């Protein structure tokens, strides 16, 4: 079964002996990796990119965002994206594994930052000129440290990375609507639910299954989802299924029936009905709309 390309860090820079972190200035990165980065693809790592120049669009999981000076984007593993630029962009890009960050900050999780907390939070903000100037200093320091051969290299990069994420989180909370609740327990439950859905959505589509996995009642799980996202558990599961459907319909050459089967539907007609109820289009109509 043909699938969307999944890129890993080892593909990008062979001169630097780090397999869990990568950095580059954006124009160099895009030029060196044009064969892969300008086509729809996903990653098995976290990605953050900031633009000091450039215009265009960035499509992330079928949502389009404008690229302008001051644009910052955040991607979690598994998200599909690609770029379209109307002029040459400049800035910085880095990506890293979850372990790279969390091994250096054992009491912290990447999900503490609002841009990585939930798939429902926007993956994009735009910062003003003054903030951009401040942020670029640390992005540039990360890039310089990455290519330098100095003692405590990983520790220095991790420290700078942590600072960048704190600064970005502060800006994000000012500029972007976020999914949040006052209940820490609800936050942890939603995070655990999203992780379980990511693992099982192709085969398990009942709210009860996920409630059982989290050792809570289906009623309480639904309350958590309604409080934090104003959606039911079933809606979250279905949204993940529909997203994967879109990815496969547009970015693979698989047949409609094989996509349906891959997503756990024994009957294509039922899959088509579910898809249309959420998108207002049949799978074939949706596929044609992206040609």
Automatic annotation (TrEMBL):
Record flagged with keyword Transcription: yes
Keyword Transcription regulation in annotation: yes
Keyword field: DNA-binding, Transcription, Transcription regulation
Domain HTH araC/xylS-type: 191-289
SUPFAM superfamilies found in the cross-reference section: Homeodomain-like, Regulatory protein AraC
Coiled coil: none
Protein name: Transcriptional regulator, AraC family
